[in-house]
Amino acid sequence: MSDRKSLPLSVVALGVVYGDIGTSPIYALRECFYGEHSVASTPANVLGVLSLITWALILVVTIKYLAIVLRADNKGEGGTIALVALLNPWRARRGSQRYVLMLLGLFGASLMYGDGAITPAISVLSAVEGLNVATPAFHPFVVPITLVIIIGIFLVQSRGTAGIGALFGPGMTLWFLVLGALGAHGVLNNPTVLAAMNPVHGIAFFLRNGFAGFIVLSSVFLCVTGAEALYADMGHFGPSPIRRAWLVLVLPALLLNYYGQGALILTGAPDIHNPFYQLAPDWMTYPLVGLTTFATIIASQAMITGAFSLTSQLVQLGQLPRMEIIQTSSDEQGQIYIPAVNWLLMLACIGLVLAFRSSSALAAAYGIAVSSTMVVTTILTVFVARRYDWRASVTYPVAAVFLIIDLGFFGANLFKITDGGWVPVVMAIGIFTLMTTWSRGRKLFQSRISGSEESTQELARRVREDPPHKIPGTGVYLTGGDHAPAYLLRHLERNRVLNERIVLLTVQTIDEPRVPAVERLRGWGVAPGIYRLVIRYGFMQTPNVPVALRFSEQLGLDIDIDNVTYFLGRATLIPSDDLPGMALWRDHLFAFMAHNAIRATDFYGLPPEDVVELGFHVEI
To answer: Which among 11, 31, 481, 589 could disulfide-bond with 219, CB atoms 3.0 to 4.6 Å apart, if both were Cys?
Structure first.
């Protein structure tokens, strides 16, 4: 990519990719010395913690994610689901290695929802708490102001981010410049803090503090939360702009600000309790609160958008039930809005703010989800490397090093479970249960109805030997595989009528992000008047059956879209304890999700006036 194209993308990436990690200086260093699991702010400890932060940013973000993980792309796309899709595990045999890796990846994806709920809560709350630095009189209003901002963020989601998205890049550019300037001013006042660049200070910190030093790793880890966004957002920008933005602006600004805060703490002033805000001169407190709040809104927006994108991928891959997915931009396919996810995340954020009431308390719940996801990413990357023949002599030793680092952060965060770390874990377990129940239930449902289905050849024989009454037009029957669905056979037996042209249509989601329009439709004739079509989409695309059928002419099948009737089967599920498969409570859960999934008419973009639904009952 040319510099002329890469530079604007790098600026935009600042607003989308680096919002979360870019707002970490508000609370990360503070928690190391003034949080619940803190250590004394002695000069040696300050240099030790700064050294750990420095090398966490270099090793975890710069080397692991930017240099290594970004290479594991799925046709240019990144993220946990894209990484899992590289292993093609969706039809793997239960208990096989690929099946276990799929479950691991899905649990990692589930953890991202907990992160998506905590990020807006802790970021906005920590920003508004800056008002306390100006005057304690604002203390009673911090939580109400935070709630108003959070509710406002979620209320505007349905309008999309196109309008304000243009401000994200320049806004975060200003944010990082201010971070760097404040930090540089602090460092100039006490240049001895630069000694923390030496990793020996970090090693000495552990030797000196023992177990207490290990626990502080959970606070140090806050400086790298958001690193997963580097990988998840790769498809929007490509690796080059993301790397450039990090190396040129983000990393220097973060290090300068952390070091500036450390220099302030080294002064030993007894009134230091919020070094981020106290690093600024008094006249700048209110403007800094405003800029910080804006930056945390951008960080929150990026996480919410990420939750929408993740949910859409899971729905397309059949790991979650069909949901209403609204396209908020006519130009950018990735700009979507999912009402159910939006309102659930908003309720979760409100609950977290009301329950914890301070960013320090929320910091105890923050980290366990991200550290777990990082462990999952490292493990999956190793197996992807094996599949794509990366050099084992390099891959395994490097992976071992990063796995030790990831497990160290994860282990330290485990001690925060009782302080609130259980919240994202419980959320992840709940979402993981929904996903596995839906996936397993769909397979059981398909096995239950398979006995009532016929092959396409058998359907052709039946129609040939006992011709039904034919009516003009095309009848499109959605089916999950290479067979005639049970509801079509029931319709034929009961009504003795079919359209003069029958299309058995399957919509497939493949393990690639996108399928070009010219490669989307495949088809062949089964018998005179009976055709088999397959429409293929990537897991980041939204299906639209009528639009895809317009390409049928390329296959020699001229379908008049204005004279098509779409036939769908609508199953009523009856949970039963007499059939093998899942526990009865999971049967009821699957039936509940199926009942509340949006209709296939809406999901596949079918015109409602041209749809006929045929109902049937299935025991599960």
So the answer is: 31
Q: Dump pLDDT digits (tens) for 1-46.
A: 445 556 777 787 787 788 889 999 999 999 999 888 889 999 999 9
Radius of gyration over every alpha carbon of the chain, rounded to an integer in angstroms: 27
How does pLDDT run across 56-77, given as a tens digit for each residue? 999 999 999 998 888 877 777 7
Dihedral angle at the C-alpha atoms of 60, 291, 124, 276, nearest 10 degrees? 60
By the 8 A CB rule, do 549 and 560 touch?
Answer: no
Residue with tokens 């308390």: 361
C-alpha 397: how far from its chain's center? 29
Indicate the helix (H) or strand (E) that contains 229.
helix 228-232
Report DSSP letters for 13-82, one per residue: HHHHTSHHHHTGGGTHHHHHHHSTT-----HHHHHHHHHHHHHHIIIIIIIIIIIIGGGS-BTTB-SHHH
Alpha carbon separation from 483 to 487, 500, 526, 587 (Å, rounded): 12, 19, 11, 26
Helices (H), 267-284: 275-278
Are 480 and 446 spatial neighbours (Cβ–Cβ below 8 Å)? yes
* Alpha carbon distance 73, 83 (integer Å): 7
* Residue 485 · residue 478 · CB < 8 Å: yes
